[in-house]
Amino acid sequence: MKRQLILEDGTVFVGEAFGSDHEKDGEVVFNTGMTGYQEILSDPSYCGQIVTLTYPLIGNYGINRDDFESISPAINGLIVKEAADLPNYWRSEMSLDELLKAKGIPGLQGIDTRKLTKLIRSRGTMKGKLCSIDQNPDEVVAGLEKRELPTDQVKRVSTKAPYASPGRGYRVVLVDFGMKHGILRDLIKRNCDVVVVPYDTPAEEILRLNPDGIMLSNGPGDPKDVPEAVEMIDKVLGKVPLFGICLGHQLFALACGADTEKMKFGHRGSNHPVKELKTNKISITSQNHGYTVSAASINNRLLEVTHIAINDDTIEGLSHKEFPAFSVQYHPEASPGPEDSNELFDQFISMINVHKEEKAYA
């Protein structure tokens, strides 16, 4: 069965349908990772987006129970050059097509994904719609022009109620803005006593849990659409050590008086080089974001830039000059991706330890 992708600029790509027969629209983005399609499509940070994978063959090792980054994928569509019909891997339990059908996600294959990627890089991310071949492109474009991008993605993917993952180490309150399970796994690996709370949990309620540290997770959308989180971070800064990842990094910056801005096409992939300014060490990182902290807004603030992206010099890490708090734009839990930056979780635990010792001798 034929299916088409219609972009808001009028460009049309016609290919083969797979997955669900639903018609969905969303912001069309691309990811350059060669592997990890299961983690990508289940990453809550893609909520409401149509994801294009640039690697030509997707689905060849199937879908397994262990590699999900969330229980239910939140993407609105998946575009690939070729979807493998017969996956071959001992852990595989179903095909990519079967998963997309089960989750109501439409897929499109057989188009020139290189052409689509170059178009997005040239013109920036655009709204698009995956629909039947019978749809009139002019009518679809008119609808996309009127369609506003959603602003409630964090609310849609955040946990609705607090829950605990008990451990015998430090208590960490993990604020869920669209948390990848990899973050939780890395905290559990360090024996942390983790309490996961919804995105809009007030500072007073978080502090009432008596945390040793606070983790701000990744998540989808524009950080300025979550003002309640900015207010919460402002109130906890200095009271408890804090570590922000991706959207958490951007929210941390906003709470410290910096600004954020939308990128032309963002960073999405598992091979982005990042430099730590203090040591000049280069790490290969996993990234997924469409917004960045404005470099100009850091001037005369209480923040220090700790990491930058090699490819475009955008800010990739921040630390507070007075309080025990830091953040990174990339994913140290790296699911999928390299584990170069996993030590940042150990840095967070060390910060908690130092803070507790200072309080004990104060």
Question: Which keywords apply here?
Answer:
10 helices, Glucose Oxidase, domain 1, 362 residues, alpha/beta, Rossmann fold, ten-stranded mixed beta sheet
Characterization of the model:
With 362 residues, the chain is α/β, with parallel strands linked by helices. It folds into two domains: 2-146, Carbamoyl-phosphate synthase small subunit, N-terminal domain (Glucose Oxidase, domain 1, 3-Layer(bba) Sandwich); 153-360, Class I glutamine amidotransferase (GATase) domain (Rossmann fold, 3-Layer(aba) Sandwich). It is built from ten helices and 19 strands. It has a ten-stranded mixed sheet with strand order 10-12-11-13-14-19-18-17-15-16, with helices on both faces. Helix 8 packs across helix 9. The radius of gyration is 21 Å and the shape is globular. The chain starts with a strand and ends with a helix.
